[in-house]
Write a structure and sequence with these properties.
Elements (H helix, E strand, L loop, with lengths): L1 E3 L2 E3 L4 H29 L15 H17 L3 H20 L6 H4 L2 H16 L6 H9 L1
């Protein structure tokens, strides 16, 4: 940190950027693993029955959650997949949860809203340092 008169500014150096990339990668892996569990649950692996194959929207949402979470987990096609997952969770919030009540705490839509925003963040900032997307970009450049 540098001090100029009374204002304080924070400079981002190579070390800070490195830790930011690592932290982003860790958050991406943890969030995608939790979302994978949610996708597996929606396909009947844990405590609820699986939806009939091809049923709209539950079966398709489950497939999108499973495939998308695995791609985000390894950091492959992170940005476009994150946009799809963000949209899927926004749809879930507004179509499934929001009609029940106005606020997420009332309509049990906190997780859908949170996932939607976190995936939107991944779409904007990318996958972090440890991702297949990053490896592919380094090999090209």
């Amino acid at each position: 940190m540098t001090q100029t008169g009374t204002a304080t500014s924070t400079e981002i150096g190579p070390t800070t950027a490195k830790w930011q990339g690592i932290a982003l990668s860790v958050v991406r892996v943890v969030v995608s693993f939790l979302f994978l569990c949610h996708g597996l649950q929606s396909m009947g692996l844990f405590d609820i029955p699986a939806p009939p194959v091809g049923s709209w929207p539950s079966w398709y949402a489950g497939v999108i959650e499973l495939v998308g979470s695995l791609l985000i987990l390894v950091g492959l096609f992170t940005r476009p997949v994150a946009v799809v997952l963000s949209g899927t969770m926004a749809y879930a919030y507004f179509v499934v949860h929001q009609p029940d009540a106005l606020l997420p705490l009332q309509n049990k839509g906190e997780m859908a809203a949170l996932y939607s925003w976190v995936f939107l963040l991944f779409a904007v900032v990318g996958p972090g340092t440890y991702a297949l997307d990053t490896l592919r970009r380094r090999r090209r450049g």
